[in-house]
């Protein structure tokens, strides 16, 4: 049996970054994930690369972490980041005193926050509420969490890490003195000298199986995806952080969020967005960007923040990085938990966790993840003669796109909304081991556009069934449409109910 | 222009009704936005041109690429309708066959479902979480919503039955008439 130096449990952004860091420092590394990468909170968030401005007033340390990481990710993950910039707008009911406190605190944290004329803000983002009384420009950006996780996992593998997906950790292997020396799954055991829990909110349940208690508080955040990119910058409300006050441009769409509500642990695996949450998000969102009221909503989704309890409500709990050394804290050697934090600071979380792993293992190796560009974000030259509709796939995978074969039918367009071609699907099946269309979506954006898969799902399923022996195209279609449906039903009116009727006629009504 | 009947909507039900009326010697005008998904009844098989030909050869006047946007009422009797191309069509009887959501026979907003041409009364639960089943492949409640009708199939507007406007087809809701 292979003896790992480190086993990382959880294939979200934190786990993928930690696997990359450990592998780059020469550790024999395993990343294990119960589902696909990015299946949890890492794939269900705003896609916001914080400048730190949002935290400047209440959490100066968090703000400083964000701006440092923001600058690092723009450099090492340029292919995953869109440097769109952000605005903090003040509406007539907001205080300009808060604006001046906010800009002072941003500057203290090293965030380049500039007050601009509201007229200038309206010129930059014409969709913004024309009644704004103030605007501050900050270096917020948009980041694709799927691509960022993929890039980290690819680099981990490039540095020798193993990744096991679709296999849940069911318990831990302990030696005679109670040291954690591995993890158990239903199929087999994996042995490792250090185990790192990077499982977000699910760390609480896993830790319990190792005899350790972590007080965590699941905080549900619901978001809405609009059918168009309504504003080309991140729009925030310049006030004490609250619900539904951030609109982020993500690729071709805009995402509005979020709510912040405590939920029971049982709900974390199947979160459903309620009508009340949708009403609330919209009511607040239209104050910032009025055209949200008349724009089609494609779907709603929710993620869960892994807050570590400090009492009180979800919005006031610390969102800082939590690194737990269970040897020191609980007398359980061999086990570490890294949780809390945010997408923006995942690389830093990984660095802190890996520093601790190295100390435990007596390895003296420096972190280089802030300097070395990620796969996809390396300099590359576009090959000549590739049909232009492959540019979306090339844009998504950047320097990795050289591994796609656009010739011999590879340029066949499969998903028109997101311009996914056969070559991209074939590459993703090879590179990421996808099992079905839900997995394929995370790596390609297939079915994420206005048709929500109505048109492309059959074509995509035929190709997948061809590439994955033993799968049935019809079953792939049914599975994917059910997943799309979950996101459509909270916003089932307007053009979305029209799309639903069409989707049903095409895929659910037997003639 | 005055017809015996104006049929609004060229889907399966509208085409069938127009053909039947014309075959019974009525002067019929059919207003349809275009070629629709559901014109699949056996007598309308074949190319869109053949479908059109089967109607026109029976004497139906087909206004394609047009849609009815409203009407003038004399009390509870509809006198004429006007179209987005600016035509005014008068008739003794009107048949509403505009279908459900996809064809915009019904329109859903966050808090209501309405019929956009005449404002016909629609039956639907006010709580929109009752509009769907979480299983995509299960029967969907929203597909059973439709306009309210009298025993003779006449629509209601503001709680009062219209004398000469009959709704047919999927705008009645999936289970209507079964």
In terms of topology, how is this protein built?
The complex is a heterodimer of chains A (511) and B (178).
Chain A: E1 3-9, H1 13-24, E2 29-32, E3 48-49, H2 60-76, E4 81-82, E5 86-90, H3 96-108, E6 114-116, H4 118-124, E7 134-138, E8 141-143, H5 145-158, E9 162-164, E10 169-174, E11 180-185, E12 189-197, H6 203-209, E13 216-226, E14 234-237, E15 246-250, E16 253-257, E17 261-262, H7 275-288, E18 297-308, E19 321-325, H8 326-330, E20 335-340, H9 346-361, H10 391-397, E21 413-415, E22 420-421, H11 422-432, H12 437-444, H13 457-467, H14 473-488, H15 494-507
Parallel strand pairs in A: 1-2, 1-12, 2-9, 5-14, 12-20
Antiparallel strand pairs in A: 3-8, 4-8, 5-7, 6-7, 10-11, 11-12, 13-16, 13-17, 13-18, 14-15, 15-16, 19-20, 21-22
Chain B: E1 2-8, H1 12-23, E2 28-32, H2 48-56, E3 61-64, E4 68-74, E5 77-83, E6 88-96, E7 107-108, E8 113-114, E9 122-123, E10 146-147, E11 154-157, E12 160-167
Parallel strand pairs in B: 1-2, 1-6, 2-3, 6-12
Antiparallel strand pairs in B: 4-5, 5-6, 7-8, 9-10, 11-12
Plain-language structure description:
The complex is a heterodimer of chains A (511) and B (178). Chain A is of the alpha+beta class. The radius of gyration of chain A is 23 Å and the shape is globular. In chain B, the strands form three sheets. In chain B, strands 1, 2, 3, 4, 5, 6, 11 and 12 form an eight-stranded mixed sheet that branches. Chain B is built from two helices and twelve strands, in the order βαβαββββββββββ. Chain B is globular, with a radius of gyration of 16 Å. In chain B, a hairpin with a 2-residue loop joins strand 11 and strand 12. With 178 residues, chain B is mostly beta strands. Classes of the chains: A alpha+beta (511), B mainly beta (178).
Tally of separate helices of chain B:
2
Overall 3D shape of chain A: globular
Distance between the termini of chain B: 36 Å
Give the integer mean of the pLDDT values of chain A: 94
Terminal-residue CA separation of chain A: 54 Å
Give the class of chain B from helix and strand content and strand pairing.
mainly beta
How large, in whole angstroms, is the Cα Rg of chain A? Answer: 23 Å
User: What percent strand of chain A?
Assistant: 15-25%
Low-confidence stretches of chain B: none
What is the tally of beta strands of chain A? 22
Estimated share of beta-strand residues of chain B: 25-35%
What does the largest sheet of chain B look like?
8 strands, mixed
Contiguous helical run count of chain A: 15
